[in-house]
């Protein structure tokens, strides 16, 4: 995919300064929500709040949230992320039931669960993910997980992915986040090949999931300084690894200590990437400035994966 003269001009015009008009988020007319009180009552965390998601008010007004398990502090310190560093304590064994209870109270039929990275745990938290998925299934809802890479050891990583897949989430997600060239700057504790390996392992296992076939999903942040040809290469790598659903959204700097935005990517450019992803063979694609991996996840799953 070649970058045009116009797109280079857009890159230069919006590389610095205030956000462009398409990144002005309108709050819902009625922004009141039972979600904050419910989270406090059940002592649960969400990535919505911890990662300073721009869609928080919209999602909470719609009585939905992405639950973040195993605490609100991470063993990694990725340069794009606002989640606090340095986890404390073991995962709470009652947390899966509390997530299921929250989903039940909110009447969610499709529940998205992510986590902080827990390199301090021998399985990276895989068993806790599996327990959470099973609790959600027992409540009658479907589950999408967005997992970390489960560490550098290939054998342990494969075992962790298998542990999660044995619980048969409807969607197994793991984000590559950016192009390989930018990993050292943006994701210094991770590895591009490692992340592809997680997705490839899940894709091999999903066909034998006990509740039926699961979908494998990944996501990219744009606006970190990636080139169009690099985005295309990542999309082809993801599809080659067996990934069937992909999301692409604008990177927004969560605070001044994090990696700065290199480019405000125009909506037309997001649509070009979406069309490319469809041509490459992805079943499900969500691409736009405010798209996040868990944003409107139930609708994306229904459009692309439900049979």
Topology, element by element:
Layout: H1 5-13, H2 35-42, E1 45-46, H3 47-50, H4 56-61, E2 66-69, E3 73-74, E4 84-85, H5 95-105, E5 110-115, H6 126-138, E6 142-146, H7 154-166, E7 171-173, H8 183-186, H9 192-206, E8 215-222, H10 228-240, E9 245-250, H11 267-280, E10 284-287, H12 297-304
Parallel strand pairs: 2-5, 3-4, 5-6, 6-7, 7-8, 8-9, 9-10
Antiparallel strand pairs: 1-2
Overall description:
This protein is an alpha/beta fold and 307 residues long. It has one domain: TIM Barrel, CATH 3.20.20. 38% of the residues lie in helices and 14% in strands. It is built from twelve helices and ten strands. It has an eight-stranded mixed β-sheet, sandwiched between helices. A two-stranded parallel ribbon has the order 3-4. Helix 11 links the parallel strand 9 and strand 10. Helix 6 runs parallel beside helix 7, helix 7 packs parallel to helix 9 and helix 10 packs parallel to helix 11. The protein is globular, with a radius of gyration of 18 Å. The N terminus is likely disordered.
């Amino acid at each position: 995919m070649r970058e045009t003269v116009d797109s280079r001009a857009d890159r230069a015009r919006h590389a610095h300064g205030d956000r462009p008009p398409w990144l002005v988020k309108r709050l819902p007319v009625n922004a009141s929500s039972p979600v904050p009180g419910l989270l406090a009552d059940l002592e649960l965390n969400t990535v919505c709040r911890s990662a300073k998601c721009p869609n928080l008010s919209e999602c909470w007004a719609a009585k939905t949230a992405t639950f973040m398990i195993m605490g609100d502090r991470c063993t990694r310190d990725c340069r794009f992320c606002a989640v606090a560093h340095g986890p404390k304590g073991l995962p709470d064994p009652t947390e899966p039931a509390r997530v299921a209870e929250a989903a039940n109270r909110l009447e969610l039929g499709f529940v998205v669960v992510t986590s902080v990275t827990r390199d301090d745990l021998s399985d990276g938290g895989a068993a806790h993910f599996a327990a959470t998925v099973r609790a959600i299934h027992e409540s009658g809802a479907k589950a999408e997980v967005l997992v970390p890479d489960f560490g550098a050891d290939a054998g342990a990583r494969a075992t962790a992915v298998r542990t999660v897949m044995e619980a048969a989430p409807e969607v197994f997600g793991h984000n590559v986040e950016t192009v390989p060239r930018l990993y050292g700057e943006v994701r210094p504790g991770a590895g591009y090949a490692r992340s592809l390996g997680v997705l490839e392992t899940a894709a091999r296992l999903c066909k034998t999931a006990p509740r039926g076939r699961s979908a494998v999903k990944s996501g990219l942040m744009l606006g970190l300084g990636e080139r169009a040809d690099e985005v295309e290469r990542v999309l082809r790598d993801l599809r080659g690894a067996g990934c069937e659903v992909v999301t692409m959204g604008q990177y927004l700097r969560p605070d001044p200590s994090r990696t700065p935005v290199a480019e405000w990517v125009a909506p037309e450019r997001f649509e070009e990437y979406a069309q490319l992803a469809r041509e490459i063979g992805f079943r499900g694609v969500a691409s736009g400035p405010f798209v996040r991996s868990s944003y409107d996840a139930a609708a994306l799953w229904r459009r692309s994966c439900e049979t």
